[in-house]
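Before going further, learn to read the protein records used in this course. A complete example follows; check for yourself that the lines match position by position.
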Amino acid sequence: MGTSSSLFNQFLLQADQTGLPEFALSFVTDILTSIGEDNNDIADYSPNPFYGFNNDTNRNAQSGRLTLVDGGEDLQNIPLHPLIQPNRDVDVIFAVDSSADTDSIWPNGTSLVATYERNLNSSGIGNGTSFPSIPSANTFVNLGLNNHPTFFGCNSSNTSSITPLIVYLPNSPYVFHSNISTFTPSYNLTTRNGMVQNGYEVVTMGNGTADPQWPVCVGCAILSRSLERTGTDVPAACSECFQRYCWDGTTDDATPPTYQPEFRGEAIDTSGALSIRQGTIATAIAMASLVGIVISAI
């Protein structure tokens, strides 16, 4: 089911952190409050197309109205929950994370943590799903798990039921500072091209320059669950990959220092590009509110 909503309500929640002048903050807040009161910041399905459907597991089965907001608002920026439903029998998920979790707008694993915690929630909201163990966001930063690919759930025997292997691919600066806020209203061509190129470098590990065996390790991740199901011996090359990329359970929950990653490759020419490497989410929101959100509301 595809839908659309907005992030206007997120601005309201973070308005006090933007550093906007009082007159501008009041102006923008009044506009967005009006939008919220009119329910124009949600996707409203009336009547509920799933009314009376799967009463035992559907929390909205008896509601005549279905209202939806951006899925990242409960911190699950990566839409993993639909993919980990048991009847899908998914073997592997490549989870690309471009979240703005840190002050410098890089991911720190919060999205994976949120899905893991949802799965453990005693209210039953996890709907029978199973998800591999995930460490804290502090551990992600302290151990560098948010700066290179990491496999989670390598040993499926550690979970009560079979879970997909999660190949975590966090946004990191290989050749371009692609830490651009969602609230940025527009991008010039240099910025766009830099972000696309950096994304390619992230998922290919610099086209194999950071690890020539990375393509082999991707194949091993894809085959991992089928090797388990069929009782097939794990090839030596895959054992090496799992040793290198699987999270081994180590944790470090100490408060990490300010996260400012360095380039992993040779930086591309960024003349004229938008970059907020040293900026904060609050600054980005402030820029967007004055340049983009206000214009769209007029």
User: Anything to note?
Assistant: Strands lie at 43-45, 66-68, 92-97, 150-152, 165-170. The radius of gyration is 21 Å. Residues 275-298 have pLDDT under 50 and may be disordered. The helical segments are 8-14, 22-37, 110-120, 137-142, 189-204, 214-230, 236-245, 281-297.
